[in-house]
Amino acid sequence: MKIRFLLIWLFLPFAAAAQLLGGRSSYAFLELPPSPQITALGGANVAIQGNDVSTALLNPSLLRPEMGGQLQVNMAGYNGGIKYGHAAFGAYAPKMQTSFAASLQYVGYGQMQHTDVTGNVMGTFRPVDFSFQLTASRRYLEKWYYGLTVKYIRSRYFDYSSTGLAADVGITFTDSARGWQAGLVAMNMGTQFTKYASDENATLPFDLQVGISKQLAHVPIQLSATIHHLHQFDIRYSGPDLRNDIRIENGDTLRTGGYGIDNLFRHFVLAAQWNIGKYLEITGGYNHLRRQELSLPERRGMSGFSLGVGVVVKKFQLRYARSWYQRAVGFHHIGCSIPLQQWAGIGIFDGRAGR
User: Fold this and answer.
1) Start-to-end C-alpha separation, the chain
2) In which band, very low, low, confident or very high, does the pLDDT at 251 lie, cut at 50, 70 and 90?
3) How far is residue 113's CA from residue 20's CA, in Å, rounded to a whole number?
4) Tell me: the pLDDT tens digits for 290-326?
5) How many other C-beta atoms lie within 10 A of the C-beta of residue 348?
6) Three-class SS of residue 96?
7) I want to staple 280 with a disulfide (CB 3.0 to 4.6 A). Which of 151, 179, 276, 340 is the partner?
């Protein structure tokens, strides 16, 4: 009965209005990778097997009891001088058999000038976005997990502000004996309570994703693949002057080809994670949509690729990642995690780390 109820909520978005890409939605900052682990994975992964509490923002059912007590802080220098950070804390309640997490994501766009219509400087202002998330996850039977994340969203750009509420619902199937894990998640289902402008007609950046990961049996490598925007097949940018299959002739817009294979692969994000010894972790990812839309055709370079390294020991985790958007444009992401359960017994409500 619980699984049936969860599936109903997962597929409710199909009955909603279409959600478009290309800057047509509010709160686009929710799609930024909150941690170096997620950045290194290519920005999307709903089935990764690991012990990083930030993965609960990719799929709430990835939150597990062993993440109880984990405190994580991440910082990133984004393009254009934008700075953003993320902090998360996990906990586990054995009596309730439920894992919990709370996290905060903040984006600051720096100081900007306020001018009138003639260009006279009237002062300065600092646009900001932030989201506060609460996550809960439980196990069902032996191999299933299900989870829910609720997000309170606040955004302010000088005199324009907006608040909203969104939710992520996810499930995972885990076969630890064979090293497989599969996940399904519906992200950013919700609404705006207050809009930037009364005539605004934007939606939230909804996404429906499915993915799978495999831990190889004889090599310490985990492979994963994620398919995003399952609800919308054509996710190419809709500008007719920028699309390869569109030709403008005598004022008419003509479609010259389907480009179905390229569009299909734009839904995929591929990643690999290699554990070197006990303490070193190397992660790489490839995002085909990012490469196709952001790279320069004649100079693609490393666009769409991402790379990360992590030092993971019993009482400390330190991770760094870099993601390339264009050949010479990317951003750096760094973060650390401290298992407070190991240091001070914090994070397991009654002191017993059950599963």
Assistant:
1) 22
2) very low
3) 31
4) 888 877 777 777 888 999 999 988 888 999 999 988 7
5) 18
6) coil
7) 276
